[in-house]
Structures are given as C-alpha cells and as structure tokens.
Amino acid sequence: SYDVKIKNLEEEVNQENFWNDANNARNVMSKLNNLKKTKEEINLIESNIESFQDLIEISNEEEIINLFKEIENDILRVGELKILTLLNNEYDNEDAIFEIHSGAGGTEACDWVLMLSRMYQRYFDNNDFKVEILDYLDGDEAGLKSITFSVKGEYAYGFLKSEIGVHRLVRISPFDSNARRHTSFASVLVTPLIDKDINIEINPNDLRIDVYRSSGKGGQGVNTTDSAV
C-alpha cells in the first residue's frame, strides 16, 4: 500500500548517512514526494465521493445529473491512479532513453521510423513528458535510420517499457513506382535512465584465473612458460 511505501522511504530518509550519496538521496526524495502526492489525491477523491454520496441522498433527479458531471473528472483520475498502482517495479518511476531503429525494408523502414518518432513525440507531449533528441541518423533517401530520445517525467519508463519490441508496417509503398505492398520493420528499445551510481562488488572467490602456455610467434619462451592468462 502507499502508506507502507511512504513509511519505508521516510525511515530511509531519516537515517544518519542518507545524504552521503547525493544521487541516491535525490532519487529517494523524488519517489517519496510522488507517493505523497498520489496519496493526497486518493484521499481527496475519497473525500469527494463521500460528499457526493451524502448530497445524492438529499438531491432531486436534476441535481443528481449535475453532480455526476462534477464527479466525472474524479472518476477519470481514479482510472489513472489505478494504472499507477500497477507501475510498481524497481525502475518504473525512472526517466527513460527511448530508441527507434529501422529494420528490414530499406527506405520504407526508414520512413516507418520517422512515422513512429512523430507518433511517440505526440504521445510525449500529451503526457507532459520533457523530451530531448539525443541523436538521429537520416535515411539515405527518406525518413530516419534511427533516433534516440531522452524522456523525463513521472513514471516515464513504466509507461514506455511496453513499447519495447519490433513494430511492423504493411502498406502500398509510396516509394514503389509499381505500387506494390511492402512490409517494413522498426525496433523500439527503452532503457531506464538511472540517476545514481551503481556499485558492483566482485568477490575474488567467484573468479577463476587460468594460466597456460601461449602459442604462435614469440620464440622458445612462449612454449616453456605459462604466459597466457
């Protein structure tokens, strides 16, 4: 539940060494603030619904119709919050790197990448994501061979990770003078943008080091000493 998640993060914030890792601290504070904001919205919606229930009991038919119009936004927001409850994996709340690459299909595939990039940019704008084009490569004749975005916003990776995979387009090609049907492919890759240091510890006991005699040129020494690792 939100209460448990908020309590756990608050306990982490209150630890003495919490601010020693500034990047991790910012990440935790961002998650905590988002959870508190969502919890406040849930409380407000619950309060509104209780008030509307009381009003419906003492209202006539016309007033009830007007009340339903007033609570429509709350009902829509409940649906959005329900989706957020499903985005509870480790990196769902992170920003994302969003890549589109052309596959089989030549110029058709490059045009397909361009169409996808425009579609996704509209989606980013409609969801108030902050977007920056990091890199792109034009197609030889039209479209794009690839394009990479930085997408920042609440639950950016959580919303976008379902787009990972190969996207196919079948259409009558405008680039074919014989007006034949072409199938084009483009791949989408989404990676969480983690703003914190990742420390990897390697246990020497987990390593296996083999030494053996080398081969090839190098004189007699390579055949008598264990010089290859």
Q: How would you characterize the overall build of this protein?
A:
Helices cover 45% and strands 21% of the residues. It is built from seven helices and five strands. The chain has helices spanning 2-13, 22-57, 61-70, 72-86, 107-126, 156-160, 221-224, and strands at residues 95-102, 130-138, 144-152, 165-172, 181-193. Strands 2-3-1-5-4 form a five-stranded antiparallel β-sheet. The model has no long low-confidence stretch (mean pLDDT 79).
Relevant terms:
229 residues; alpha+beta
Entry summary:
With 229 residues, the chain is α+β, with helices and mostly antiparallel strands. The protein is built from seven helices and five strands; from the N terminus they run ααααβαββαββα. A hairpin with a 5-residue loop joins strand 2 (130-138) and strand 3 (144-152).
Classify the secondary structure makeup into a structural class: alpha+beta
Largest sheet: 5 strands, antiparallel
Largest beta sheet: strand ordering: 2-3-1-5-4
Strand and helix order: HHHHEHEEHEEH
Poorly predicted tracts of residues: none
Task: Estimate what percentage of residues fall within beta strands.
Answer: 15-25%
Number of helices: 7
Helix content: 40-55%
Tell me, what's the shape?
flat
Number of strands: 5
Radius of gyration: 27 Å
> How many angstroms separate the termini?
52 Å
Mean pLDDT: 79
